[in-house]
Fold these 4 entries.
Entry 1:
Amino acid sequence: MYKFYFIFFLLICVFSIFSFFVEPFNFLDVVSIPFMIMSLIGLFGYTYKRQFINKKFWKIYFFILIAFDISYFIASFLLKSKIHSDLNSPTAIFFILLISLPLYIAIFRYYRNFEKISDQENVSLKKSLKILIVITTILGGFILLGVLVNYYYNNKLTYVKSLYKKGLFIESYNKAQEFINDTSVEMGQYTLISDALYLQGKILVSKNKQDLAFKKFQKIWTYNSNFDALSTNNIVNDLLRKSRSNYFKKMK
């Protein structure tokens, strides 16, 4: 049974790494990476009856893991979309905790029954560190790639925003369109595309082209249903609300 869960958890780790390509990440995301790697190793050891490191390490890790996850969920809920918009409801947090429960049980049983694993299946600390380095290097490579992709796209969008701040609205609008055309939706750059569309919408509003702005704002919801923009312009906010409402009516 746990072999299936190990594969499932491995896929979760892969998708978590893929999120570095998709959206901006924060400090807690970076901190969660070592926990993800160590949980994967511990789960592998429990599932395939292999000793990694020692019992004392996994006992301490178990309690730290529980404390970190609870703190992360509480912070996500209290800060709403400041950390992750998909963790701002008790239902979402409960569902994730339910999925994580087998992992907690596995790590708990792993350290409790550590000595029962036969000596033939024991993996030395030196070999454990080698395995840890290999896994960290592989996952770290994907994470680094994700960071570089995000940095590249964010840099491009920052340049577009700088043109807007300088009052170069036509240049900013055209560069924003180039950014939208060049940015890969398949790679999941929904938030960045939404930002570019929002910028175009604001420029169109300033040119009294509300109809065109409405279409730009409506496109935002096709890419990012969690988009949340604050504007001092009442017309922009009104168009955003109407476009959002209109989009979700069509979805229904």
Entry 2:
Amino acid sequence: MTGSSAKLDYSDYVCFPDDGRRHEIIGGEYFVHAVPSTEHQAVAARLVTRLVVAIEDQGLGRVLSAPTDVELTEHDIVQPDIVVLTPEHASRIGPDKIHGPPDLVVEISSPSTRRHDSERKFGLYERTGVREYWVVDLELPRVERYISDGTRFTLVETAHDTLRSDLFPNVTICLGGPREPSLVERAYRAHVDAMSIPEKMRRTAEMLSFVRNAIARELRAEHPDVSDERLKWLVARRLYAKDPGALRLVEEMLRRVSG
């Protein structure tokens, strides 16, 4: 991001280098991100292909992918990963850029861009009239789908295998095929395979902690008066439900613990 006080606009944007990196202007400020990873590009390519087949080939709208310039306002010019415009807004597509908000925006998020996509660009799309926003998280992995009521985005779905759109109610986007992992799952596996052994161990510990905390919150909501000690073993019972040997030990501890 630059430190200049003057707000940048499209005349500045067209002067940015064509170097493969993602250059954007948000609120008149300059942001640049590294060239998307191969995982990112592979997921984008598969997803845009499925959107074209499901939407554009059926005459339901236009589907475009990066690098496509989108001028949302005078001082907001971005390059989303994928955009979709319904026929009523197809006139916003110009020869060099899209003028105004797409109906659907898809961003593929990685650790280095997560804050940019889920905070900065989230707020930008929310206030400039984007009707639906998908955030594909390569690390978790999942797809969050938000819809706008005209003022604010609301999370309506967290998907792993299939996605629907409020803009295209008869369309289902399959993130994976029969007996195959989803696009996001494949990207996540590639991400994990590239980790060193210490990184994998740290990641596993973090995910286990996340799952334990999530289960504990759910159980605490169901049993607000349960003791911390009993809660610990209730979480263990949920985690080891498919391990008969471990489950016997957990049940024994639960019989000993009151609360």
Entry 3:
Amino acid sequence: MDEYRTDDEQLDALRRWWGENGKSLTVAVVTAVALSFGWQTWQASEEQNLRQASDIYQALLRNISSGAPEDESRKYADELINEYSETTYAQFAAFHLAAIAVQMDKLPEAERQLRWVLKHAVKGSDSAQLAELRLARVLSASGQTDKSLAILQSGEGGNFQASYAAAEGDVLLAAGRNDEARLAYQKAMALGGMEGSASSSVSRKLQSLMPAALMNDVPVAAETTDETENLSGQEE
């Protein structure tokens, strides 16, 4: 599940974007609705709910960065999911719990958390697409190759089209379907949009699958440690 780390770059970028823009956007939407329909009481309640969710999420991030016991982080994540399920903070909390489950090799639990994100995220949003990418990898690691490929091949891709193709290549490679994996990696490189370790990883895998006579035609990604920043965003 090393490929899960490249998805972490995308999730970090999404978190940063939301930290910079999400709260102001949500408050703006709430204010517009309140002005349109005169729901001042509703507006105050929603703003308070958002602030509370933000405070809990910040506490979760502090726990994670400080290396606090996992039980404490899980407490904050569970509270967001159970009490603030309509906020994007709750979706980030579910991503966190899924990552913990993967690290502990509890793949059914990781699948459950990622399906929760898909149920609550706006269809086609960056959060939904990232959840699909991670779910596909979890299913593949569980030996459910067909279900994994079905997610990747039916997804919209959006800002993550190259990542979908790269993930498809990884799933096919793990299943021993090398020729199909090579085509998927070629598609990912042709689509572009990947940076840093993700692009380098795909390039290396593609080269390893190419016949020797064609090696010179394979594009080689430059090694870089830059994080993936190809999100058009939403959420803090």
Entry 4:
Amino acid sequence: MSRTSYRHADRAAGRLEGALTRIARTGGKLIDPAVLFGIAVLVAFFLGLEWLIATDRVSRAVVALPSDAIAGMFSPDFRGDLIGACLLTFRLIAVAMILEVLVAIPVGYLLYRKPVLGTAYEGWLAALFAAPLFLLYPLFMVIIGRNNYTLIFMGFIAGIIPIIIHARLAFMTVPQTLINVGKSFNLPEATIFRKIILPSGAPTIFSGIRLGLIYTLINIIAIEFLVDSGGLGRMISDRYFRFDIVGTYSAIAAVALVSITLNLIISRLEKMVR
């Protein structure tokens, strides 16, 4: 090979190295290493589970192969029902969460502004948070009916309590100095709340919202499963009682996707508020 060819090869190698370096730097900015680590652990877990089931160390009558469960989500016979069930459950949870936020933040602010009320009802809220409110679903099915409104209400009463508790705590931790600065500029109370108090308390408030999402999701899916109504919970129940193990785990995987989607939306909203 001539010297000219060596120079061209060196230049090409240099360009390739530079391109790979830029891609690595860009990927590092776009993808959090903690997220990559979490994905790697999850993939390793499912690969290990796949191996255990494939080698009959775990019975296929109890746990489906992860690959079969994922493939089952895209099968023609299953996909139509799954999309409809996902959309229905997503709407129920989203409506319940919106109502929870619209009610919980003003109530938390009221308990913050009125310390007497906050002290009086703090223990009550903690007791309700620990109580199994899920067991009230037969009562509300009689009062409201066996419909989606009951599912939304049961998700609402389970998820609103942690949001109220965290909202009050968030407002209490806002530095008084920031509020005094707003008052020194003669800002209206609503502006102080919107520009100072709410952004300062956003991390704690959104922690409560994520906790509320967990309880809302569990309640709605569980009631759908028990009363054979609604979306994904009903689909899990249907596949379970038909001994369709793969279909059951495919529906459970869809529940995980709905949860991840809602968490991503909440994270996006938190960045907008902050």
